[in-house]
Amino acid sequence: MATVLLNLMIVAILLSALVILGTRWLRVYIHAYAFQSLTLSLLTGLLAVQTGHGVLYAVAVLTYLVRGLIVPLILLRVTKNPVMEQEMNLFLKVPSSLLIGISLVICAYLVSLRLLGRQGNPFVIGAVAVALALVLIGFFVLSCRSQAVTHVLALLIVENGIFLGSVVLAPGMPLIVELVVLFDILVTVIAMSVMVQIMAIRLGTTSAAELQRLTG
Fold it and tell me: What is the pTM of this model?
């Protein structure tokens, strides 16, 4: 039963990343990221029960609070500005983005199968595949979307992928490492939120392409 729940959570985490490729509304991006992070916290808690690593209980709670609640609330507050409701200029249309995203998932699974196939644990192979897929999708979002808030979320998705891989492959990681990472995430999101709000007020846009044009 626990294995079935873990596999369902892995699938949910992957689908939440694909949702971002399937829409242009920033609030949907943020809700998808919040769902992804909350699912990650539940998965971490379940792994704590299965593996007996007590540190994972604290990591699950911190993940729930910071990634699942505080960061999404900060980003939702930022996107109240009308200029940040949706992506206006997509470098790739939604169907093309989804097709490429699915291709990245397939590539991630094949790589994971190649690296971990001998281990024979389907959950570990699937979890590592999804972790790698999150990293690839995050970098893809960075390259195909223009909003500064979207770029912040893309980096957070990459970090979620790294976190998922570390929890599955090294569940006994020190708590201090996770504390440092979460603090870094929080500071980065707050700083980027302030910058995005300044862009919206002074430039009337939050497009990263506009920043590149201003810097030459």
Answer: 0.85
